[in-house]
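Quick one: structure tokens for this chain, please?
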Amino acid sequence: MKWARSFVALAVTLAVTACDAARTPPAGAPTRSAPAAASPSHPAEITLAFAGDVHFADRTADLLADPATAFGSISSTLSAADLAMVNLETAVTARGVPEPKEFHFRAPASAYAAVKAAGVDVVSIANNHVLDYGRTGLADTVDAARAAGMPAVGAGADAAAAYRPWITEIRGTRIAVLGFSQVSELWSEWRATDTRAGIAMTRDLPRAVAAVRAARRQAGVVIVYVHWGTEGEACPPPEARAFAAEMAEAGATLVVGTHAHLLLGDGWLGKTFVQYGLGNFLWWRDDAYSNDTGVLRVTLDGSAISKTELVPAVISRGVGRPELAGGDGAARIRREYADLHACTGLAASPAPWSGEAR
């Protein structure tokens, strides 16, 4: 069982109503460590785990027949962390009208039971599918999250809800989690406003920056999970790099991304760790660029990042579950992942400590 937590605030979308519409890394896991890594016995050590995009459609839909086992053996990797997070890339609804776009995804409420059983503590719903069935579908997605007791960030009944962080406390460290989308499709129609339900969008930059700065005033660790990048492109586009810089300046401790359907590289912007793409995770189709994936594991020493590592995994061609990679497969993913750093524009290590508080 995970460490007990004191939940200081509910997830962004869990605050709205329906009407408002010891841990040993696997062999071969790549690591990028900050100086002076914390001892495993340090009482303030906290582990975070992040994975990519999750769908329950086509080949993965049948996994919800038994939500408790939907994620298979990868659940142990997620459950071992003090806080685990994925992107739930679907509307959770049986209602609504399809929006004018090519792909539409929806899942039953048991999707939340599945991610919860896998050890996930919070999901991002700031993506280009949560509104596939309109604002009726979004309201149902929020209601189902609330009913399941699953914090969901990045969308809500209005901008105040969509940009609100979920805040938790783990062994004395307060952690704030926010979700944003940078996907251009329907972004202006789907963005949350003061009077309209929707998604927290990176293109509403002043609001996004203000949300991260406000979260920083409330928590020692600020996690920003972003749906961004270009599908099939292994290097982050200028728009993603610019937003990462804005988040670092605003006080984010960690910026994590998904959407490109393949792994992207990581590194440091000053003292902010940035991971540009975790790829698909539990995935509905076998031809989406790459079946390589992994779990980003981040170790905190109190509120400071002391180590990061990608635990390599591969999406099975049968049912679409991620499974830990081993042997040559893990070595290959580790090698290719390390090579992805070259086009990120990120440093290989954090900036030296200046003695100044952020």
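The longest strand covers residues 304-315.
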